[in-house]
# Entry
Amino acid sequence: MLCKSVTRFSYYITKNVRRDFHITINPFCKIIKESDNSESINIGNAIKPPRILITGGLGQLGTECAKLLRRNYGNENVILSDIIKPSEENLQNGPFIFADILDFKGLQKIVVDYRIDWLIHFSALLSAVGEQNVPLAVRVNIEGMHNVIELAKQYKLRIFIPSTIGAFGPDSPRNPTPNVTVQRPRTIYGVSKVHAELLGEYYHHRFGLDFRCLRFPGVISSDPPGGGTTDYAVAVFHEGLLNKRYECYLEPHTRLPMIYIEDCLSALFQFLNTPEKLLRRRVYNVTAMSFTPEELFNELFKYIPDLKITYKPDKRQHIAESWPQVFDDSEARRDWGWQHKYDLQRLVELMVQDVNTNFLSKHRLKEVNSYV
Ligand SMILES: NC(=O)c1ccc[n+]([C@@H]2O[C@H](COP(=O)([O-])OP(=O)(O)OC[C@H]3O[C@@H](n4cnc5c(N)ncnc54)[C@H](O)[C@@H]3O)[C@@H](O)[C@H]2O)c1
# Structure
């Protein structure tokens, strides 16, 4: 029997606070390590770690993802990029460069100069922000994606592009939502993600591109989210701990699939390292749990008994009502051994700890207030 091996990695969220993440490499990954070496690149007889470019790397997922990859492949091998200005902390652990995904020549230069092997494409306008500026969402989410996929084809890169529960719509089965089913989303965000899924699959079949895509549910971390429909599940921790009250823009019974950041990155890392021969698909659903605002707040009351919740649904309610309630990720579990680690109770416990420790200090108050 193959026994579980655990890769432990820790990182610094702030200068003073150390947190540990534990990424479990399950038996599937052991097979990967023994038979494939797919996490490394073979150059003659020497094996070297991949050089990875992350686009849109200063958003909710990018900085944590860079920390994970740097611990596994070395600081210098993971190049974080974005069009916004990095903080001092962003510059501490490895290279950061400016990269606009709408500038194809600029991207070519980066791939050549840094000898990139893998591309993790995080740049996007999320669901709520996309609806506020459709032309920009078309440019960033569709034209930008055309650039990176063409780049990956030209330079034979492995490319990871996340998709989302938002790639489904009102005609999709919502409980559960299987891996392959009717999609037809009603947001520009969802439309652009279906486009990315299909174009990636097409490039794989037509040109042999190593395209990989996971459909993530709402990702919960203590870092500020980027303007999606599931953001309430992050914002309530900041406002709740800070002000003891929160006005929720979704109705209390709106059920959506969710995942804690550590599980999300664990899925990404494991999927990136899965040998091609195990992948029956290029696009997989992954999830960890499903809950409603009311269920989340009930759990949070255990930590903040005097938390006052009010509800004022806005346009995001309509978006949420067209999305999956329960995500069926059985194909990811079957094909490459995906397993989540965190449930609702553990998620709330960790989020209360994270937000208390890392955000409720004086110098972060302004930052928190700017997005909740
Ligand atoms: N956060 C979630 O809950 C979630 C869930 C499912 C899927 N995803 C996907 O994961 C990816 C990352 O999500 P996130 O939450 O970190 O997003 P985010 O909004 O926090 O970050 C996106 C980043 O893209 C950058 N960007 C915008 N225009 C750009 C351009 N022209 N060139 C380069 N960069 C540009 C922004 O500056 C921003 O830092 C996205 O593709 C998103 O669709 C996220």
